[in-house]
UniProtKB/TrEMBL annotation:
It comes from the Bacteria. Residues 48-83 are annotated as: Disordered. This is Uncharacterized protein.
Length: 83
C-alpha cells in the first residue's frame, strides 16, 4: 500500500469469518487522510475478538526476595523507587 504522502490517516479494519473455525479469515483495510482523532469501534461482535478485548487480570502472587533490592535502577512505578 502506497501512501500519498506524510500526514495523519484513519484506518478502518473489517474482519470476517473469525469465528467459523475455518483457518481462513478475510480482512478489508481502508485508509484515508484525516486529522488525528480518538479510536472508534463501530462494531465488535466476534467471539475471538472479545477474548482479545478483555482486560487482563491484575497479577497476583509473591515477589522474589530480591524485589526491593537495587540492582541497576528502577522505573518510577517500582515500589523501591518511592523511598
Amino acid at each position: 500500500m502506497t501512501l500519498p504522502g506524510p500526514g495523519s490517516y484513519r484506518l478502518l479494519v473489517h474482519g470476517k469469518n473469525r469465528d467459523d473455525g475455518d483457518p481462513v479469515e478475510t480482512y478489508l483495510l481502508q485508509l484515508w487522510p484525516a486529522p488525528l482523532a480518538a479510536p472508534v469501534t463501530h462494531r465488535a461482535t466476534s467471539a475471538y475478538g472479545a477474548t482479545m478485548r478483555e482486560t487482563a487480570p491484575a497479577p497476583t502472587g509473591q515477589h522474589p526476595d530480591w524485589y526491593d533490592q537495587k540492582t541497576s535502577g528502577y522505573g518510577p512505578d517500582h515500589p523501591a523507587a518511592q523511598r
